[in-house]
Amino acid sequence: MLKKQNIDWDSLGFGVYPTRSMWTSSSNSNGDWKNGKLIPYGNIEISPASGVLNYGQGIFEGMKAHHSAKDRGVLFRPDMNAKRISRSCKRLCMPEIPEDYFMNAILEVARDNIDFIPPYSKGGLYIRPVVWGTAPTLGVAPASEYTFMIYTAPVGPYFKDGIKPLNLIASQSYHRAAPKGIGNAKAIGNYSSTLLPVKEAKAAGFDEVLYLKADNEKLVEEVGSANIFMLRGEQLVTPRLTGSILDGVTRDSVLKLAQDKLGLEIKEEDLLLEDLFKSDEVFCTGTAVVITPVGCITYNNKPYKIKDGKMGPVASEIRRLLVSIQLEEEEDTFGWIHSI
Ligand SMILES: *Cc1c(COP(=O)(O)O)cnc(C)c1O
């Protein structure tokens, strides 16, 4: 039996929640990571001239630990996050983090906060690694000192009242990422630029924004912090990774499950917005949302309902497969599960 904090697990949403400890370490610009250790969860001190506060030199990751059906704490494909964090660091001119160093840090913080993992099927412990430029830099330049920190927060299901198909607006006013920019890095600046579009979309009654490609607005890119998929007959299509799309771990997992377990033909290609309107199913994927159906997309003030607006059978089945692997209810034939 895993020990548990005295938390009202059923009322957990998706938000910040203080836990026991967080991981910290620092490096010079050469990637000489040192002083790695757990410290009590809490506020930190930082120079007002730090690279992260002034020039957005920062990136993050996101993953979840679950209390599985085998009564143990598990991670889902943490090696993918390890590889991606280094790619993101490289793009932001920050030192890369060796995969084994990353894994050790994740395991230390997950083990120390294991009693904050919600009970089986009540949610997960969200793990948030962040890397930023710490040293003061008045001119625009890479910082000379970096911090790698990991904090955690117990989270409930992303949608409290069960899965409800999303009502999206395909934005004609904003883009998420520029071609040849930093869209394929989990860079903090990519998310500040989406705050206003999402605020406006919510005020107009939508759940989220569907972003179109900056260099061809006929093509779709992704949804805020989730990738998008379309089912067309026996074909499952998702936009190809052209550099402005974040390569989600969930995206990759869905492609593999669809091909290997459901026998669907998978396609990574340019995805036309107008093809979504007449598709059989549309859904989005990510660590936070898992797999969430899209019920309606509004473009040019016109709402286009996807089929009957309900969650389709393929999205349901892929979601069931994915969650049952993540919770060790089903055999992990891909070797995706990593015990804490
Ligand atoms: C994190 C993220 C995703 C989803 O990635 P996962 O690894 O599946 O969680 C998709 N799009 C964006 C922009 C993201 O930041």
Description:
- This protein has 8 helices and 17 strands.
- The strands form 2 sheets. Strands 8, 9, 10, 11, 12, 13, 14, 15 and 16 form a 9-stranded mixed beta sheet that branches.
- The chain is of the alpha+beta class and 340 residues long.
- A hairpin with a 3-residue loop joins strand 14 and strand 15 (290-299).
- The structure holds pyridoxal-5'-phosphate (PLP).
- Pyridoxal-5'-phosphate binds next to helix 6 and strand 14.
Short description, anyone?
The chain has 340 residues and is α+β, with helices and mostly antiparallel strands. The chain is built from eight helices and 17 strands.
CATH structural fold name of the largest domain: D-amino Acid Aminotransferase, Chain A, domain 2
What share of residues are in beta strands?
A: 25-35%
Relative helix content: 10-25%
**SSE succession:** EEHEEEHHEEEHHEEEEHEHEEEHE
Catalogue the unreliable spans: none
Shape: globular
Provide the CATH top-level class of the largest domain. Answer: Alpha Beta
- How far the N terminus sits from the C terminus, by CA atoms, comes to 14 Å
Biggest sheet details = 9 strands, mixed
CATH homologous superfamily identity of the largest domain: D-amino Acid Aminotransferase, subunit A, domain 2
CATH architecture of the largest domain: Alpha-Beta Barrel
- Compute the gyration radius: what is it? 20 Å
Report the count of strand segments.
Answer: 17
The set of bound ligands, ions and cofactors reads:
pyridoxal-5'-phosphate
As for the number of domains, it is 2
Helices and strands: which structural class? alpha+beta
